[in-house]
Structures are given as C-alpha cells and as structure tokens.
Design a protein that fits this description.
heterodimer; A: mainly alpha; Rna Polymerase Sigma Factor, Chain: A; Arc Repressor Mutant, subunit A; 9 helices; 84% helix; globular; B: mainly alpha; elongated
C-alpha cells in the first residue's frame, strides 16, 4: 500500500466528513458505503457470528451518526477514529455477553474449529476450487480466533486482517507500539498452536 | 546480548520486511547490520524464540489463505434506513442553520410531538373535569374541587345512562304497541276489503242461484 494512496484516502474521508458535518445526506451515504464492509469484517472476525456482526455494525454507524460532530480531522484520520469507536463497542459487547459466552464457548467454539478442519481436509483432496478453500480457511480461522484472548484477537484482526499500521493500532488500543508488536507475536504463535493442535487431531 | 522481549519486537519488523539480512542488492548501515546480527544470533541460540518465529510464520501463511468475510448486501440499506431522518446531520451544520437545527432538533422529534399531544389531551380532560370553565384559575385545580366536580360528573353520566336506558325501554314498548295496532288495523282493512269484494262477486254463483230458483218454480208447477 503506497503512502500516496493512504493520503488520498485520508483526504477523501476528511472531505466527505466535512460534507456530512454541513448537513449533506448524500455524503453520509457515501461514508456508509465506503466503510461498512470494513466495520462488518472487524465485527465478524471479533464475534464470529453474522447476526451479531450485523447488529454491531448498525450500532457502530448509529453511534458515528450521532457523534460525527466530535470527530476532529486534525487529531487523526477518520478510519482510526471509526476503528477506535468500533473497537470500544466490541469490547463493551464482549463484556456484556461474557457470562453467556462462558456457558456456550466450550460447546460452541470447539466444534466450529473442528468442523473447519474436517471440511478443509476433505477439500484438499476433493475440491481444487481456491475460492471455496479460502472460505473454508476463513471459517477455520474464525474458530481459532474465537479461542484467543480479546487482547490478542483484536491486535491480530487490526494488523493481519485489516492491514492497519502499528501507529494506528497503538492509537486505537491506546498502548505503546512495542506492546502491539509483542501482542501480535504472541497472538500469531497462539493461533498457530491452535491450528496445529487441531490439524494433528484430524 | 538481545533478550527475548527485544527479539519479539524485532520479529514483527522482520515479518513486515523492515528488518532484512544484508545482501548485495540491499546493503545495510552499521546500526542496521548490528541489529540484524543480534536478531539472527538470538534466533540461533534461543530455541523458544526460534519456535515462536516459526509459529508466527505459519499463522501468517494460513491467514493469507483465508478469504475476507462476505458482507450481507442489505446491511448498507438497513444502516441508511436507520439513519434516514437527517436531523442529527443537520444539527452538525455550522453557522446559523446549524444553530437553528440544534435548537429545534429536540423539539421536532416524533417522540416529543407524541408527548406534547398526550399532554394537551390530558390537560383538556383535566379542564373538563374541573368544570369546563372558560377561564381557568389556580383555584380550579384544587384537588377537593376537582374530586367533587369529577364525582358530580360521574353521577350525572350514570343518571343519564340509566334514564336513557329506561326511556329506551318505554320507547320500545310504545313502538311495539303501535306496531301491534298497525298490524291489527291492516288485518281489519284487509278483511273489510275482502268482504267488500265478495259482495260484488255475483256472476257465477248468481247464475247458479237463478237456475236453482227456476227449477224450484218448475217443480212447483208440476
């Protein structure tokens, strides 16, 4: 990703936000269309459930809609602001649903990983379709991500699945860049161990 | 000598391609070369960190295979629908327009309008209970007076209902009696009409009677 492209995108976002702030409803639609996929991806990777991810994405945009006036372009780019807002909402959601998850995580998360492994193993032999293999790998990754702690999970999602810079991640998570790198390594290693463990089991 | 925590940080740089081994194409300066040497040396001497590096590479390779989750298409429409009033955006507008929108925004909400309507209805009902006087004063809202007025009104309504019910019964009785009389009158008229019609109906029976009389006359002559 070139620096020029990032700067262009940053300028575009700032302009669209400025138009929104002047009461332009079309600009709001542009903003939603540009960022929904990214926010949904973040929510889906964090929760692992489509319906929850959709609800959370809607909540994020409702919150953005109400709080857009508090965005300051001089303090950082819109994407970082939006990601921070999404992340805070996800963490709130995680804390709110913790009790419910404790009861169903063991029964619910493990089969998802196992199911992913079974389908991927069979796909290696029978299905050469790369798109399908990508979807199956995605499901398996989702199951493995669900077994990571929220701190490691969010760092991996932001860096490896959302391609954010270390500085931006450090801004969003409000931790030093060194900690971001350390969490990334631990998260990746943990992820690899989960995947390996299940690969050996099947 | 580098420790494991420092190695972890450099490992992230190595993965991102910002820490590289010196090569013919990419010569390093002294500081970079020293950093690389420490990194490579630690990796060779620390089995745990070597394993960590391998696991990290393995996880990254797997994540590259994974497809991006597919976003449901109606989601954008749902979000736009949920935010279609436009009031919040107008409130962000700068200058006089924004000020007006911010001032009127809380008032021109559907919930507020509903609340205002309910309040007006409640006040209207209260006014009626207080006696329906045109000029309301604070004395009209005295609870004792309100209660007395309400009690009187309830009694009046009850009395009117009872009176109305009883009046309706009398009305139905009278109407029933009139209907009966009308039916009786109609039956009498019909009977009278039949009788009148019978008295004028002579042709066939008259001929027969005449024939019988003629026969009797002839029998008498015999």
């Amino acid at each position: 990703m070139g620096t020029g492209t990032a700067a262009n995108s940053l300028d575009q976002d700032s302009t669209v936000v400025e138009r929104c702030l002047s009461g332009d409803a079309n600009a709001w639609e542009d903003l939603v269309r540009t960022h929904t996929r990214r926010v949904y991806g973040l929510c889906y990777r964090f929760t692992g459930r489509d319906s929850e991810a959709q609800d959370l994405t809607q909540d994020v945009f409702l919150r953005v809609y109400r709080a857009l006036g508090s965005f300051r372009a001089a303090e950082g780019c819109f994407t970082t602001w939006l990601t921070r807002l999404t992340r805070n909402l996800l963490i709130d959601h995680y804390r709110r649903t913790r009790n419910q998850r404790v009861t169903d995580s063991i029964e619910d998360q493990l089969p998802r990983v196992e199911q992913g492994f079974v389908s991927t193993h069979s796909s290696h032999q029978a299905r050469p379709d790369t798109a399908l293999a990508g979807r199956e790998a995605s499901e398996m990754l989702q199951g493995a991500l669900g077994r990571l702690s929220p701190e490691l999970r969010e760092t991996i999602i932001l860096r490896d699945l959302q391609d954010m810079e270390y500085r931006e991640i450090a801004d969003v998570l409000e931790i030093p860049e060194g900690t971001v790198k350390s969490r990334l390594n631990r998260g990746r290693a943990e992820l690899a161990r989960i995947l390996k463990k299940h690969r050996e089991a099947f | 000598m580098m420790n494991c925590a420092e190695f972890e940080i450099l490992l992230a740089d190595f993965i991102d391609g910002t820490l590289n081994a010196p090569s013919m194409n990419q010569p390093l300066n002294a500081a970079e070369e020293a950093k690389w040497n420490s990194f490579a040396q630690h990796k060779e001497t620390c089995a745990d960190c070597a394993a960590l590096a391998e696991e990290v590479q393995s996880a990254l390779s797997f994540m590259e295979m994974a497809a991006e989750p597919e976003m449901p298409q109606p989601l954008i429409g749902k979000i736009l629908h949920a935010t279609n009033s436009g009031w919040e955006l107008k409130r962000h507008a700068k200058g006089f327009r924004g000020w007006i929108n911010r001032a009127l925004g809380p008032i021109l909400q559907p919930r507020f309008v509903m609340g205002a309507m309910v309040t007006v209805m409640s006040l209207t009902m209260l006014t009626r209970c207080a006696g329906g006087e045109k000029s309301m004063t604070a004395a009209n809202l005295d609870p004792v007076r309100l209660w007395t007025s309400l009690d009187t009104r309830v009694h009046r309504v009850w009395d009117r209902t009872v009176k109305g019910y009883e009046s309706m019964r009398v009305v139905y009785e009278i109407r029933g009696q009139i209907d009966e009389w009308n039916a009786q009158q109609a039956a009498n008229d019909e009977a009278a009409a039949d009788a009148k019609a019978n008295s004028r109906q002579l042709p066939e029976s008259g001929t027969q009677v005449g024939t019988q009389v003629n026969q009797q006359n002839q029998d008498g002559k015999k």
